[in-house]
């Protein structure tokens, strides 16, 4: 895999609560320089990032219902539509983990379908926060959201424990027949970390270490 190929798998991420516009500018300049897939940011920074990324191939991933996911589907839909209006190309939303724990699968199905409809033409990724889930719950969530039409099932917000390679493999095996892809996020800091996640089945990587991964990547 070439440096450019790995770059196009990276969502260069800055989602801390205390970030400044200087930090947003920094990751946008890195995305333009290395041709990263997107920058992943809070929705309030989208207009600023859009101006900085003008003329580049890099998109903007909006973090929706972040980081807990305990929003109604209607609230998530509003966030999604507002983010798209402002320039988001990708929407990463945290699922309703409590509903999954309570086996309220109709809630998850409705959420997925509503957000898919609201994001038609954009890339939609559902964040499972796998460290909070059992293997059975991970599989169930992957099945529900892949059927709802999400483009990616994503492991984590990056705020809690990082995913294991085994979890990434389970997610990949669950959704591959549906054509849904896997995004790994959390604890991916080196080229070696990235390679392991890709080998496990991930085709998109959420990381704040995109530059380090790119610079250290050996073709």
Textual characterization of the structure:
This protein has 219 residues and is of the alpha/beta class. It has a single domain, classed as Aldolase class I (TIM Barrel). 46% of the residues lie in helices and 16% in strands. It is built from ten helices and eight strands. It has helices spanning 3-7, 21-34, 46-52, 73-86, 97-101, 105-118, 135-148, 165-175, 191-200, 210-216; strands spanning 10-13, 38-41, 59-64, 90-94, 123-127, 152-154, 181-185, 204-207. The protein has an eight-stranded parallel β-barrel with strand order 1-2-3-4-5-6-7-8, surrounded by seven helices. Helix 4 (73-86) links the parallel strand 3 and strand 4 (90-94). Helix 4 packs parallel to helix 6 (105-118), helix 6 (105-118) runs parallel beside helix 7 and helix 7 runs parallel beside helix 8. The longest helix is centred in the first third of the chain and has 14 residues, at 21-34.
Keywords:
alpha/beta; TIM Barrel; 10 helices
Number of domains: 1
CATH superfamily: Aldolase class I
- In N-to-C order, the SSE pattern is HEHEHEHEHHEHEHEHEH
Strand order of the biggest β-sheet: 1-2-3-4-5-6-7-8
> Which strand-content bin applies to the residues?
15-25%
Oligomer: single chain
Number of helices: 10
Strand element count: 8
CATH topology: TIM Barrel
Would you tell me the overall average pLDDT?
97
Helix content: 40-55%
Could you name the CATH class? Alpha Beta
Question: Residue ranges: pLDDT <50 for 5 or more in a row?
Answer: none
The rounded distance between the terminal residues' Cα atoms is: 6 Å
Give the overall shape, derived from the CA principal axes.
globular
Please compute the radius of gyration using only Cα atoms: 16 Å
Please state the second-level CATH architecture. Answer: Alpha-Beta Barrel
